[in-house]
């Protein structure tokens, strides 16, 4: 029998072989256990390492090149460290998919008219939560870490906690009742703070989602005391817990150091209720992977597959910069410069190697640095980084890796040709969009449920539909010409819909614009004539041949 049978496993269970599935059957965060759990440390280390790569804080990268010189030439290694430079390709590669995803504002529809209560309520969720910006920020973070999380809650948007220090409990409650309204709030949660528990038999669905992080509290002595804050989401309930925490070892083997903590005893959370019934039979946290596969819930980010390529690019830049500096100040050689009075008669800024006068004339030492090969390799590395990230270089308006590495994109001006050249990045954005479409629609549906359960909303929640755009400006003239050919020059869109789409307005605003257009047309044409034919008839003639 294994020695651990019947004992408290704590958090020291390593992940099993990929051929098997690991199911955690104990409480993830409890007294005596470790935070973060052992089988989450590698994921957290990777996500923080990718954030460092995105931020361009790669001061440690130069050591890969300088270590080659450290033993043979410590002085050169020190110079190389001072010359460190870095190009932050990770930033633009992670940001561009987010720009294409919501660069053109998507529309959110319930299927009801724009003036209906349900549609106006959903529009309010989008506007009040600044949902477009939330999606953009989430997509950027998703490209960095590989996972994003959206949380829906019902509460106050403003943090009023500091008012408790100047108001009594009665005054504080009266202030909230008079000045603040609770509402559904959609926000994103940092992936390093989320610890899901997978369902039995399904590696991609969750029976619980834990949001847990260390919070340092500074007491009156100036001491920083760590506490573990846990927000455990279950279907229909949220459980809040707080534990004492004690700093433990630092795990360094995954590339980024992760501090671990020993979980102490449970302490009061300071909340009125630690177990909250949400009134919604679902978990209020939604997972959005950047790129997913079928064996794990964890997503794959846009940077981790090109991490070594980006590192090599910065290495090559450091080496090229070092070579150029050395070529600007080469080492000289020639006869001794001492004139016998212990004074140099010639000043040379760089190094100087003295030789006897009868040996060789003064000169400069030169070497074949193969700069053309270094730049060629740099071009290939940059091109490979863009290829691996499914991003055409000319998408940014220029090419970084030479004219033969991706093209300029200026020779294709019609819509079909541009879309064809955009195909790699468009396919990538569509893949990302599928995950966000489901998560954002879920969040809006849950927001309606919370509003009906706890707020003043009085309607049946409906699962909304999102009309996304691909981020490429449409060639309206080309599209109109195509439609004219297909329909035999017959109308393909009514005036109301055309104004609504062209000006990006709702039904009410479109009706108002049409009414104004009709008023202008009436003013230009003058009053309507009831029977224009009356002016074309000859006057009647009486029987005596005279006019009436």
Written overview of the protein:
The chain is built from 14 helices and 15 strands. It is flat and about 140 Å long. Strands 1, 5, 6, 7, 8, 9 and 10 form a 7-stranded antiparallel beta sheet that branches. The relative contact order is 0.12. With 548 residues, it is of the alpha+beta class. Helices cover 37% and strands 18% of the residues.
Oligomer: single chain
**Rounded mean pLDDT score:** 77
Strand content: 15-25%
Helix-strand makeup class: alpha+beta
Helical content stands at: 25-40%
In total, the number of strands is 15
**First-to-last CA distance:** 126 Å
Number of helices: 14
What is the ordering of alpha helices and beta strands?
EHHHHEHHEHEEEEEEEEHEEEHHHEHHH
Tell me about the biggest sheet? 7 strands, antiparallel
Shape descriptor reads flat
Question: Gyration radius, to the nearest Å?
Answer: 35 Å
Unreliable runs:
1-18, 60-66, 79-86, 403-411
Region (Disordered): 515-548
Pfam families: SPP1_portal
InterPro entries: Portal_protein_SPP1_Gp6-like
Organism: Salibacterium lacus
Indicate the topology.
Elements: E1 34-35, H1 41-55, H2 62-70, H3 74-82, H4 89-102, E2 107-109, H5 117-128, H6 131-145, E3 147-155, H7 169-179, E4 183-189, E5 194-199, E6 202-218, E7 224-234, E8 237-251, E9 258-266, E10 275-277, E11 285-289, H8 307-328, E12 332-334, E13 352-354, E14 363-364, H9 371-388, H10 415-421, H11 423-454, E15 465-467, H12 476-487, H13 495-503, H14 507-525
Parallel strand pairs: 12-13
Antiparallel strand pairs: 1-9, 2-15, 3-4, 3-11, 5-6, 6-7, 7-8, 8-9, 8-10, 12-14
Helix pairs in contact: 2-3, 4-6, 4-11, 8-9, 13-14
């Amino acid at each position: 029998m294994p020695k651990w049978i019947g004992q408290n496993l704590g958090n020291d269970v390593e992940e099993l072989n990929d051929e098997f599935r690991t199911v955690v059957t104990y409480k993830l965060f409890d007294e005596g256990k470790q935070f973060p759990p052992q089988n989450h440390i590698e994921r957290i280390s990777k996500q923080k390492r990718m954030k460092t790569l995105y931020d361009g804080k790669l001061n440690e990268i130069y050591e890969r090149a300088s270590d080659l010189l450290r033993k043979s030439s410590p002085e050169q290694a020190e110079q190389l460290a001072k010359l460190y430079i870095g190009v932050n390709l990770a930033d633009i590669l992670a940001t561009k998919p987010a720009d294409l995803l919501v660069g053109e504002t998507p529309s959110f529809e319930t299927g009801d008219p724009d003036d209906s209560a349900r549609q106006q309520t959903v529009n309010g969720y989008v506007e009040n939560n600044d949902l477009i910006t939330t999606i953009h920020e989430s997509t950027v973070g998703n490209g960095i870490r590989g996972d994003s999380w959206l949380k829906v809650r019902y509460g106050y948007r403003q943090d009023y906690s500091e008012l408790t220090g100047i108001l009594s409990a009665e005054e504080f409650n009266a202030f909230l009742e008079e000045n603040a309204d609770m509402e559904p709030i959609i926000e994103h949660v940092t992936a390093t703070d989320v610890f899901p528990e997978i369902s039995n038999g399904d590696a991609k669905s969750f029976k619980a989602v834990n949001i847990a992080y260390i919070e340092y509290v500074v007491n009156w002595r100036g001491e920083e005391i760590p506490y573990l804050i846990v927000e455990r989401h279950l279907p229909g309930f949220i459980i809040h817990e707080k534990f004492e925490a004690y700093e433990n070892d630092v795990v360094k083997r995954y590339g980024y150091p992760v501090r671990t903590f020993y979980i102490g005893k449970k302490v009061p959370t300071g909340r009125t209720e630690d177990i909250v019934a949400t009134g919604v039979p679902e978990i209020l946290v939604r997972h959005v992977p950047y790129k997913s596969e079928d064996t794990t819930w964890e997503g794959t980010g846009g940077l981790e597959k090109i991490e070594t390529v980006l590192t090599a690019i910065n290495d090559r830049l450091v080496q090229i910069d070092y070579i150029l500096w050395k070529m600007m100040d080469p080492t000289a050689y020639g006869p001794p410069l001492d004139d016998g009075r212990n004074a140099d008669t010639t000043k040379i800024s760089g190094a100087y190697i003295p030789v006897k006068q009868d040996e060789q004339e003064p000169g400069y030492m030169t070497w074949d640095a193969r700069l053309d090969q270094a730049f060629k390799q740099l071009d290939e590395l940059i091109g490979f980084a863009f290829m691996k990230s499914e991003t055409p270089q000319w998408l940014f308006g220029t090419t970084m890796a030479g004219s033969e590495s991706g093209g300029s994109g200026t020779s294709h001006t019609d819509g079909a040709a541009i879309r064809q050249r955009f195909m790699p990045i468009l396919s990538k954005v569509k893949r990302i969009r599928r995950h966000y479409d489901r998560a954002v629609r879920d969040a809006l549906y849950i927001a309606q449920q919370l509003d009906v359960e706890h707020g003043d909303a009085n309607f049946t929640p409906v699962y909304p539909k999102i009309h996304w755009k691909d981020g490429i400006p449409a060639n309206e003239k080309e599209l109109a010409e195509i439609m004219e050919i297909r329909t035999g020059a017959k109308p393909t869109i009514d005036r109301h819909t055309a104004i609504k789409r062209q000006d990006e307005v709702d039904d009410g605003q479109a009706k108002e614009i049409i009414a104004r257009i009709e008023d202008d047309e009436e003013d230009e044409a003058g009053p309507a004539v009831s029977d224009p034919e009356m002016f074309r008839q000859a006057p009647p003639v009486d029987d005596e041949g005279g006019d009436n």
